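User: Show me a protein chain along with its predicted structure.
Assistant: Here is one chain, sequence first, then structure tokens.
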Amino acid sequence: MGPLGGVLAVFLQLTGATARPVECVPADGTAGTNVWERAKAPHLRRYCDLLASGSAKLAGIPPGAGPDGARAQAGEVLAIADEAEKLVPDRIFPAILRGRALARLGRWDDALAALAAVRKKDERALGDAFALLAWARANARTGHMDEASAAYRMLLPQAKSLPPVDRSLASLEAGLVLMGRGPAAIDDAVAVLRQARRDAQDAVLGASVLALALALDRAGQKDEARGVLAERGRTDPRPLFADARVKEALANAAALAEAEALAAIGLEAVDAAAAREAWARYEKVKGPWNDHARARDPAKRKGPG
């Protein structure tokens, strides 16, 4: 396989077919044709090498690394995007790469602005899973929950193209975003969180189980919620929320306040008093599920019994 084939192979693996820059695809659609010699445009080879390198660097930043752990590689990607844009101006892919790098750095306002500018040029430009995940997170982190919900809904059918860890986080985040939309979206949240439980491992699995149980309970499916919780056993859920990936998922979904409700439902079988305290704290957070939290305390229920 020649230089062009190697570049395209990287794009196929890291960005998916929909994300490959059209200028990096051989005219006949094959990876073995040396289009650069035919087109006599050697700067395009450098351009495509840069984009492949940037995508690889972003894929190598582990979720949960946070701004400090991601800064060096994501900063390199910003420089790569700038250089690629100078080589071939007015192309969309370097701007997408820049937006994804800004998201990895936790510069959410800047990431949102960069990706929104791309979307303004071409509504379909953010159609691959990697770009959609950055777009969804940037919207949620900056409080644009309608846009975040729409982005996560678009992302989920393509989530299989994400690396396993990103895929499980994306499903958990999507379920939390949908649950935050209130009763109208709770059935969708349950479906998504079922997938999150199937995809996840370790602490993210524990958080996904709690989120699914909470969603089922809020949807009125209380027996199934208890069955899901029984899978965990009588285990204190609170240590889960110290895990960097779980904290990142909650923050990405603008659902940090949900930690109290998640802990509360998990504590009910372990420490009833601590569960009541967690529900009481959650009640103080204004949102669509305050009545549900209040109903968990028998002393606060309305009517007989």
